[in-house]
Protein: ABC transporter, ATP-binding protein
Amino acid sequence: MKKLPIICHHLSKTYQQGSVTIPALIDVDLEIPKGDFVCLSGPSGSGKTTLLNIISGLDKPTEGQIEIDGERVDKMSQSALADMRLHKIGFVFQAYNLIPVLNAQENVEFVMQLQGVSSEERAKKARAILKEVGLEGLEKRRPGDLSGGQQQRVAVARAIVSEPSLILADEPTANLDSHTAESLMQLLRTMNEEHRVTFLFSTHDKLVMDYSKRLIKLHDGRIQSDEG
Structure:
């Protein structure tokens, strides 16, 4: 039996704008096995980002339930959600979200520092993962001294270094040229295959869709198709 890091059961989410109820997700059922490499696609307003936010615990469903590694995310307290995000989920954002005053190695170490990992172990792991993502020799450079592609690789290293169960990536190639984007996706596929980390992307980028092992198309808050 496959281990399922993510199970969504009858998920729905609505928002209120004055007296108007706006559906963002409608009765979404979804299972994502460990090690999957999944892309959520669809036009703006289809529910991609809402679904990512609910999976990460940044938003709550109006109806339905969600489990990560067998734990009910929709029932967790705020402190438990913060702990889950710290230890089980890595994030890769389109804007990189690196800390400008920290160098590449310090940015990668940041999550491990929050986890209470010793300084010696943090440094060792950070250097190793930066080498793995092709940034050996650039450990002491701050984000402003790195290209967009290099900054995104630092963000990937930071997301994966603590060995989370799941990495959520929201439009990870949006600010990259096509060559850099393809290089990034090759790197993420390698990370997925070698580390067995589960990836879930939200994207408009056909390149990301082509690299994904499974493509889930959303439209008006519903799963329109699920292929792969």
